[in-house]
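If you are new to this repository, start here. Below is one unmodified record pulled from the training split, so you can see the exact layout before writing a loader.
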Amino acid sequence: MHKLKLFSQEPVEAAPLAVFRILFGILMLWSMLRFWSYGWIEKLYIAPKFHFSFYGFEWVKPLGLWTYGLFFVCGLSAILITLGFKYRLAMLTFFLSFTYIELMDKTTYLNHYYFVSILSFLLLFLPANAYFSLDAKYDKSKRFKYVPKWNIDVLKLLLALVYIYAGLAKLNSDWLLQAMPLKIWLASKTDVPLMGSLMGKAWVPYVFSWFGALYDLTIPFLLLYKPTRWLAFFLVAVFHIMTSVLFNIGMFPYIMIFSTLIFFDAGFHHKLLDFLSKTFRWDTSVFDAKATLREKHNTLTILKYGIVSLFFAVQLLLPWRYLTYPGELFWTEEGYRFSWRVMLMEKAGYAQFKIVNKASGKWFYVDNSEFLTPFQEKQMAFQPDFILEYAHFLRDHFAKEGQDTIEIYVESYVTLNGRRSTEFIDPKVNLLEQRESFKHKKWVRPFKDDIKGI
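And here is the target side for that same chain:
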């Protein structure tokens, strides 16, 4: 433990942390502007009549037109993070605003939104403004050329966890033996420049599947080992640029490419900072004092270590929670989110809700398009927690119309990774008698196939 303490507290240059902060801020600002310019704020958060909530966060809702203000605050925080001005406050504001945006509607859940949220939380505890920042320029007490080594290593650890868990998740029979769902997706990419002619070949999905699993499981180690670092970065760039071209997955490829730079030594980052200083004619000599950040052994420091340790304990354990549920994970999706299972399944469904008057026995079907956007309806149709939440929303809606003695059933069929569509939800279960919880949803029909693997 003593050796570990000495290793983690060993002074290292803060330049990599500064570059990471700058790139993170730029990418987050770009993300906010992209969302705004594409009209997604209106389309995803203001226009819909109903929003799906994460369990326990039902109180997080869009703010009407004030939602634009929320995105503005998030974007402004990203600018301040980039500049390193009022860094702690800016990072806290960004974390809270971005996480609120992420939680407003479960329909928009993506792994990289979750990654940004937890990364911004971790950055709250790191002195990313100690070097090449406005805070450090104007406040000598915040200016340090050297910081404890653990501040750099925790970022490497988080990235390694994301990659390794993504790789472990690919060790299943659908991905490795059936090349699913890539076999479905790549067949529709024949119009892609340069690579399009290959996408229809039967062997290509298998190459992509096996390379993807191998890449995720090995890339952190190749990045950590100095002789293979540049090769690893080349693979990172090629891999993520290809996924960006082939699949519309937003900012995630660029976030992962630029985050990978944290693995390079300080000399590389100084070259990047020198380029920025010359471009913007900023005198950086003030940052090159030999000051070293020494962490005081007080209650606040111990609390910080405890929070960061708990953070990683959660990240290590959370992806395994699916083991506490029976049935096939890809089918029930119990424990699927927040576990770095990226692009592992092609799932589509059909859900028709039947409203039955308990007194008269009369019934009718719901037109989902009256309440949901096409994107919401698509996501709802194959996810049990969505189906349950929507049923309870329908109960509240029809209760306002005077129909407060109803039962709600659903006729639901789902296809997974090219399999035949099969019954998904027990049609005899009144969904209004069910409550959302962390318990297994027994009213989901058993999966009629077997997917081997982790």
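Two things worth knowing about this chain: The radius of gyration is 25 Å. DSSP finds 18 helices and six strands in the chain.
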